[in-house]
Write a structure and sequence with these properties.
This protein is α/β, with parallel strands linked by helices and about 325 residues long. The chain contains nine helices and eight strands.
Length: about 325
């Protein structure tokens, strides 16, 4: 995710916090409504297991930093593939060479293909790499870890449903999302840029109905902002689903513009939405620091996002296809 874009998102967030503080205060003192929402969430929640999802994150973090080419990076690749195969999901290893400022680096997107009732495909994605730092130990518990754990658990849940009862979903674990040196159009999002180009050439891109991208969704104080780049209709579906599940307080009206793995798909006309909480610690102070650790996360945050994504899939499946 781009530093410039993220700084803009933070600025917008801070301005909106000031203007919305009165509204938040006005909502206080309504325990009955809060209890009703909590009961709705318990009633309508999916089979998403928060502890299972969090265990995936713990495993990845236990190996240490996961920059491209590292031992931890390779262990994470093997782990993702192993989990998908345990769920009886077809696995494709999309190997490619990323042309970075530090030379050509071997990278690999991992795609888990789960057949469903339609030909069109919904993508659910996350990046699993961490940014390379030489001066700090950056394990990316939230940035790359939380979303990868959540997508693996969503994959498990959907794999247990009969094929006629689920949409056609591919789970995409992007490699090389982080910049090798400094974020730019050519030094970032290596995996998503490669995959979009490949799928455009071979015709696969025409089969993609939508991309739901998860990133930094594990914060204990979960507050997912609306991304201004994301497809408005998808944003509306996700936010409405969150309200229906009683999770509306975690999907805010704050607006940011986040340069992430969904942007290459948007540029090719694929509807996409980025679910990201880019207020990780006060003024986002944990992002890309040694403080992005497990103790800052909550398994319940992973479940909130997982429940919303799973519940929203039938509506997204029924939405009109893009015309581009």
């Amino acid at each position: 995710m781009g530093w410039t874009r993220k700084r803009l998102a933070n600025l917008v967030w801070m301005l909106l916090v000031v203007t919305l503080s009165g509204a938040v205060g006005a909502c206080a003192g309504k325990p009955a409504a809060t209890a009703q929402k909590a009961e709705s969430a318990r009633t309508n929640a999916s089979e998403f297991d928060a502890d299972r999802a969090f265990a995936h994150v713990q495993q990845m973090v236990s190996w240490g930093p996961r920059p491209v080419g590292s031992e931890a990076h390779q262990k994470t690749q093997a782990y993702i593939i192993e989990q998908l195969r345990q769920y009886k999901i077809e696995v494709e290893e999309d190997r490619f060479i990323g042309q970075t400022p530090k030379g050509n680096w071997p990278m690999m997107n991992i795609i888990g293909k789960l057949k469903g009732r339609t030909k069109e495909v919904i993508l659910i994605g996350s990046h699993y790499d961490t940014k390379l730092f030489t001066d700090i130990r950056f394990v990316g518990a939230n940035d790359g870890g939380s979303s990868t754990g959540a997508v693996l658990e969503i994959a498990r849940v959907l794999s247990q449903r009969p094929e006629p009862e689920r949409p056609h979903v591919w789970f995409v674990f992007f490699d090389g999302e982080e910049a090798v040196v400094e974020w730019s159009p050519t030094d970032s999002r290596y995996g998503s840029r490669h995959l979009v180009e490949r799928w455009e050439k071979d015709g696969t891109l025409r089969q993609i109905r939508a991309l739901i991208l998860l990133d930094m969704i594990g914060d204990k104080d979960l507050a997912i902002q609306r991304d201004g780049y994301s497809t408005r209709s998808l944003v509306d579906v996700i936010w409405q689903t969150a309200r229906e599940l009683g999770y509306g307080q975690h999907f805010t009206s704050d607006l940011g513009f986040i340069d992430d793995d969904h942007v290459p798909f948007l540029q090719k006309g694929v509807p996409a939405v980025d679910l990201i909480d880019f207020n990780y610690g006060l003024l986002n102070r944990y992002w890309h620091t040694e403080h992005d650790t497990l103790d800052k996360l909550s398994p319940q945050s992973l479940k909130i996002v997982g429940d919303v994504v799973i519940r929203a899939l039938p509506t997204i499946e029924a939405m009109p296809m893009r015309t581009q």
